[in-house]
Amino acid sequence: MAMSADVLRLRNLRFYAYHGLHAAENQLGQRYEVDVEIRRDLGPAGRADDLQLTVDYPRVIALIEEVVTGRRFRLVEALAEAIASRVGRECGPMELRVRVRKPSPPVAVQFDGIEVEICRTYP
Questions:
Q1: Residue 102 catalytic?
Q2: Catalytic pick among 20, 64, 102, 122
Q3: Residue 55's closest CA among 82, 29, 36, 32?
Q4: pLDDT tens track for 74-109
Q5: How far is CA 121 from the centre of its chain?
Q6: Whether the predicted model's global pTM rises above the 0.85 cut
């Protein structure tokens, strides 16, 4: 699929979940932030003003929430991959960019957290 110039962005979705390598992360949980960029031709939907021709973003948000809060992952990379796979399989075709942020990882250094970004294509 050739990359489309059209992008639908879902920015800074926030969830409380229990992912991580450390026991405390799995017991106490923490906040996660997710951005999703969906690239596909939005022209037909824009011209027809028809939801059936575009991405139903409330549905995408619900899918992301199910993945983030419904399963536990050790790695943020695995969480990002699961989000991309679920959204891509159920809402494709699309090119998809997923960013997952862990703003407060349990380390002894002050910083703004970690972020993983992956890009996938779903025909």
A1: yes
A2: 102
A3: 36
A4: 999 999 999 999 999 999 999 999 999 999 888 888
A5: 14
A6: yes
